[in-house]
Amino acid sequence: MSEPRWLDGQEREAWLSLAALMFVLPAALDSQLQRDEDLSMADYMVLAMLSETGDRQMRMSDLAALASTSQSRLSRIVSRLEQKGFVSRTMAAEDRRAVVAHLTDHGMAKVEQAAPGHVEAVRSMVFDRLTDEQVGQLAEIGRALLTDACTPHRALPADGHPQGTACP
């Protein structure tokens, strides 16, 4: 059995910072959305992804990839959003096996209401603390770490369009 490739001091420091960030930032953003809008971060991401399409609809498989979640988790999220009247689902006209999620007018109003507070939280927790150069580096680092990642979700390519689905 070969010796593990232990982290050096700089790698350990970087890893511990990243690991802490992976727990603290999502929890803080989720807390803001729960407190202010009665939405989870996952709920908001689904609404936001649908709101950014021209016709406010998307195949569930593509939406799962864009929202960085599995199709089974997305189905639970969309069910919750359907109960609130924010989203509806139909069968795709061109492929009866595919399901399409639609953002309702009520859902669009909710995402428009939630967006300013969420963006302010993201800005204050992330971008206000970084230089322009660091923002560019953060984007580059994110792409590098997500490329071919499947732990737990497949990354989107640089053009932002899903290629297949999120990892199970």
TrEMBL record:
Pfam families, per the entry: MarR
SUPFAM superfamilies, per database record: Winged helix' DNA-binding domain
Top-level taxon of origin: Bacteria
Domain HTH marR-type: 15-147
PROSITE patterns recorded: HTH_MARR_2
Protein name: MarR family transcriptional regulator
